[in-house]
Amino acid sequence: MKHLRLLFDNFTLALLGVIALATLLPCEGQGAVVFGWLTNLAIGLLFFLHGAKLSREAVAAGAGHWRLHLLVFGCTFVMFPLLGMLFKPLFLPLVGDELYLGVLYLCALPATVQSAIAFTSLARGNIPAAICSAAASSLLGIVLTPLLVMVLMGVQGDTGSNLDAVLKIVLQLLVPFVAGQLARRWIGAWVARNARWLKTVDQGSILLVVYTAFSDAVISGLWQSVPLVRLLGLALVCCVLLAVVLWCTQLLGKRLGFNVEDRITILFAGSKKSMATGVPMAQVLFAGGAIGAMILPLMLFHQIQLMVCAVLAQRYAAREEVSA
């Protein structure tokens, strides 16, 4: 039962339920307009809370480890996109054009914050460095991810110009984040006390975006254009991509002379991709039914990375027992 809980936690089940709901009862017409406004408000609230939760003191504690941070950022924003393009001859026949673009979008995203830190903590890695790297990656992603998307796919956003797309990212993501950081002085303690309750706001925002995105996609014929064989191919692509990245981060950590704790941080911070950032950002960058295909690879990769990294973290946590 514990293993089943690891594979299918409550949030994963909720995501599957929302996809099923969007498939059977997609929002249309005036309902879609209302859900669009709600989604925009939810995205702003999500990034405001991210800013309010981020401790500047904790980030400062790990900020001096610049070699580690450069390696993590290189894995996140350079190695991932290069692998996505390098493996195109393998990935494209398995998933088709539409989902392959979603894989490229996945490769352009920043690292997770919560899970990277949680797994590093469980594995007894360098926690302050993990906090700094994950938080900085999330911030950099607000700027770098749209630029990488434009380079990898030539996407200009649904407004028709690069400048408008960047402006929309700034207004919808960066401004609420900065507002949250500024408000942390007054609400930081309240946010910390209510972290468990506020987690439902985070997850609820993501579920709302997923429902709106998949409703658009279903109406545009997503499931007609993505047969079961493509979904199986996408699962294989996500497994291959994650396996190569995990191998590369482990190898680079060893070759560059980092100690075990730092190598653990590099492994977990450099191999993750953030659904909390990726789903709302897709709502800003892509138009209409295209969003569903763009976030489908991310949702599948997210679950696979959690399952694999949970096992790896437990093995690292037990390393003294193994060596004894």
What would you note in describing this structure?
The protein is mainly alpha-helical and 324 residues long. It has a single domain (11-316), classed as Na+/H+ antiporter like fold, CATH 1.20.1530.20. It is 85% helix and 0% strand. It has 16 helices and no strands. The radius of gyration is 19 Å and the shape is globular. Mean pLDDT is 80; it is low at 156-161.
Quick overview of this protein structure:
The protein is mainly α and 324 residues long. Helix content is 85%, strand content 0%.
Mean pLDDT: 80
The helix/strand order is HHHHHHHHHHHHHHHH
Radius of gyration: 19 Å
Tell me, briefly, the overall form.
globular
Task: Determine the structural class based on helices, strands and strand pairing.
Answer: mainly alpha
Strand content: under 5%
- Number-wise, the strands total 0
CATH architecture: Up-down Bundle
Given as residue ranges, the uncertain stretches (5+ residues, pLDDT < 50) are 156-161
